[in-house]
Amino acid sequence: xxxxxxxxxxxxxxxxxxxxxxxxxxxxxxxxxxxxxxxxxxxxxxxxxxxxxxxxxxxxxxxxxxxxxxxxxxxxxxxxxxxxxxxxxxxxxxxxxxxxxxxxxxxxxxxxxxxxxxxxxxxxxxxxxxxxxxxxxxxxxxxxxxxxxxxxxxxxxxxxxxxxxxxxxxxxxxxxxxxxxxxxxxxxxxxxxxxxxxxxxxxxxxxxxxxxxxxxxxxxxxxxxxxxxxxxxxxxxxxxxxxxxxxxxxxxxxxxxxxxxxxxxxxxxxxxxxxxxxxxxxxxxxxxxxxxxxxxxxxxxxxxxxxxxxxxxxxxxxxxxxxxxxxxxxxxxxxxxxxxxxxxxxxxxxxxxxxxxxxxxxxxxxxxxxxxxxxxxxxxxxxxxxxxxxxxxxxxxxxxxxxxxxxxxxxxxxxxxxxxxxxxxxxxxxxxxxxxxxxxxxxxxxxxxxxxxxxxxxxxxxxxxxxxxxxxxxxxxxxxxxxxxxxxxxxxxxxxxxxxxxxxxxxxxxxxxxxxxxxxxxxxxxxxxxxxxxxxxxxxxxxxxxxxxxxxxxxxxxxxxxxxxxxxxxxxxxxxxxxxxxxxxxxxxxxxxxxxxxxxxxxxxxxxxxxxxxxxxxxxxxxxxxxxxxxxxxxxxxxxxxxxxxxxxxxxxxxxxxxxxxxxxxxxxxxxxxxxxxxxxxxxxxxxxxxxxxxxxxxxxxxxxxxxxxxxxxxxxxxxxxxx
Length: 724
Hints:
Layout: H1 4-39, H2 44-52, H3 56-62, H4 70-109, H5 113-126, H6 130-134, H7 137-155, H8 159-172, H9 180-196, H10 198-211, H11 227-231, H12 236-249, H13 256-271, H14 286-303, H15 312-328, H16 334-347, E1 354-356, H17 361-369, E2 371-374, E3 377-382, E4 385-391, H18 396-400, E5 407-411, E6 414-415, H19 421-428, E7 435-441, E8 449-454, E9 456-459, E10 463-464, E11 467-468, E12 474-475, E13 477-479, E14 484-489, H20 496-508, E15 515-519, H21 528-536, E16 543-548, E17 554-559, E18 571-575, H22 582-592, E19 597-600, E20 608-615, E21 620-630, E22 652-653, H23 658-672, H24 677-682, H25 691-695, H26 700-722
Parallel strand pairs: 14-15, 15-18, 18-19, 19-22
Antiparallel strand pairs: 1-21, 2-9, 3-4, 4-5, 5-6, 5-7, 7-8, 10-14, 11-12, 13-14, 16-17, 16-21, 20-21
Helix pairs in contact: 2-26, 3-4, 4-5, 4-26, 5-7, 5-8, 7-8, 8-9, 9-10, 12-16, 13-14, 13-16, 14-15, 15-16, 21-22
Protein name: Carboxy-terminal processing protease CtpB
Keywords: Hydrolase, Protease, Serine protease, Signal
EC number: 3.4.21.102
């Protein structure tokens, strides 16, 4: 007779078998239902969601059920092409990663830490798992060696090597914020040599290259900027006003003691830089130099005590004594001492606070006013020659027939062979109505050509489209079939909003605007009012931006108004790590209001307000950080010390490698060159059709923007059709 225990066991076994059968049945039914569900076409909303998340391959598969729809069929063809290009990009990226790692290993074997670190940075940008790459044994060995060598370079005051290594380490750990202070310190030493002894800096760089066995180009005569021009018109009032304003109005509210400590440290840095002895005779006075250094060291020790109290009068008196001691020891030019003390004060502040010295004021006026007086050309220095990148539209240079690629060999009869780019700009620009003669060497011409030009008021072009029109102007339509527009905003100047209005109006002349790509990549910012006005074009109510001070007290607030608002067409904003300040205000506000889809990579994180304070009656200006911007989501976008979040995070993250960014920028620059009809007819190997950027898959971020907008149009039509 079976036991009760045996019965229970059989019963338990039977129950388990039954439960397993039920589970299998449920699983089978679920699988069948799932298969039936997958067989059903996706809803328009689901298709839109795939595009929004960048799942373009899944979108391609899902659209197969809609291929009888003409617009869907067209999108399928475009997505097939995108898929092929994406596969090619991925294969190229993997190959480049392997090649970069091979170069890193080779450089490490040859004890070329600088090259190994450069290759590691490249590999880090190519890797799909960069965080794992940094903890790899080979990588950590390269990093540890670089850190050790950089520290030793500082000990022997080899500032070029220290800067080279610390700068690369900073780039490698950009998100973590490591090695920023070390890089900044080394850069401060190199700045001194570059300003006061540029020839010596060139010699040092050449000597290092020879010692390492690098290829060294033949020496070319280059005219360096004269440090005397930089300190011209500097006076004591500039230092005093900078000191007072920095302590009183800077967002961190630093004490006079802290500011003077950095001013003294900066002056000591100059005294410790042996390379400057060829510039300043007093630096060769060993006794005087030692006395002055010891004096400043004692001051620095006193200023380093938290208990030491100092008001403005104390600080000014100390600065006077520092200047007098200089006169009795090394006798540096007083303006040099004032310049370095002031640079020390601003160096203690954030990265965006600085003095706009008298020599820099004209450039400041050009950048903020949106106009300058000149002939209307973009120039660069290539292979030791001044080359015209492109004439600007409707300017004296374009009307006279100056072309891209022309080499400027003389200006008013003076050779440009040794000129720096800064010198060239200064010589070519000038008062409106005055004349300047450019002597041009042009390919295909046996003799140089002289162009006598009358300088005119040139308006900076901050808005650009997709393609130059023959005869002038821009075509802003990037996709004629879908009626999608494309606008690049390079900086925010006074008339940017008006120029955007004109671009939208230009598109509407030929049909409706069914979508817009607003490209803010590499836009460093500009005027806050311009950013507010442009944002206001896309939203008709609600907050745009406001500011807070160091105590997080809210101050100015900008709100949208109903007038001048554009139609409610879909918008994509492109951003990357070069999008800063005003660009972040626009993209952040449009994202918070749900008015635009943000595509690209995280923005720079420069969300601070700089106010300008006149120094010495407007001869110079102090640019001082006084507040932080807050976007409608309630978040400060500025990258604060030790922050883990900053800037604007895109809704759809599309990364590009450095090589891809470089290729895209070069292609865009070539497409932007303004050429006359005869040049187009003759053909130009250096010029490209902007459509090639899309056809060759050079810009995956722009590509993603286009596909999202195209998919939006399709899903909108499918939605309408489904309701009939």
